[in-house]
Design brief:
Elements: E1 22-26, H1 34-43, E2 50-54, E3 68-73, H2 76-86, H3 91-94, E4 105-108, H4 114-123, H5 125-131, E5 140-142, E6 148-149
Antiparallel strand pairs: 1-3, 1-4, 2-3, 2-5, 5-6
Length: about 150
């Protein structure tokens, strides 16, 4: 009898409407900095698809994030590929260098688009002045090749 073909792995259905490009990556390991997340995304060849990355600092616990990151993708297809790659992925698999239990979750961010997120942070002058002393925690913007650009002060 002929052997049955192996079943293809089931693809996760996107949980967000396709017109969205900005996501919140939840359950981020608390010690993960923007630079570490940037390195992980670069290793997976995803950095070129992102034009905005922000890992909010927990102001009560220096050197820790708030447990999430905001990422804006250049296209809906790039956002969907990221969502399929990371939504439900174990933290140990996604961030092998960092400790963490549980799974990554990818959800729609409250603000959509790089410009809207940059503008919101620019209007928060106090936050940016507080982060000026810790540049590793400043929001990051990138060109089409994934090269980091200076965050516009206003």
């Amino acid at each position: 009898a002929p052997k049955a073909a192996a079943a293809l792995p089931e693809r996760k259905a996107p949980s967000m409407p396709e017109a969205l490009t900005t996501v919140m990556m939840k359950n981020l390991p608390r010690k993960c900095s923007a630079e570490q997340l940037q390195e992980v995304l670069n290793e997976k060849n995803l950095l070129k698809d992102i034009d905005f990355l922000y890992v909010p600092l927990d102001l009560t616990m220096k050197k820790c994030n708030q447990g999430h990151a905001i990422l804006n993708f250049r296209t809906e297809a790039a956002r969907e590929a990221f969502e399929q790659a990371y939504n439900g992925t174990s933290l140990k698999q996604a961030f092998p260098e960092l400790s963490g239990n549980g799974k990554c979750a990818v959800a729609q961010a409250p603000l959509q688009g790089s410009d809207a997120n940059v503008l919101k942070l620019q209007k928060s002058g106090l936050l940016l002045s507080m982060l000026a002393g810790t540049p590793a925690w400043l929001p990051r913007i990138f060109d089409e090749e994934g090269k980091a650009l200076d965050f516009p002060s206003n």
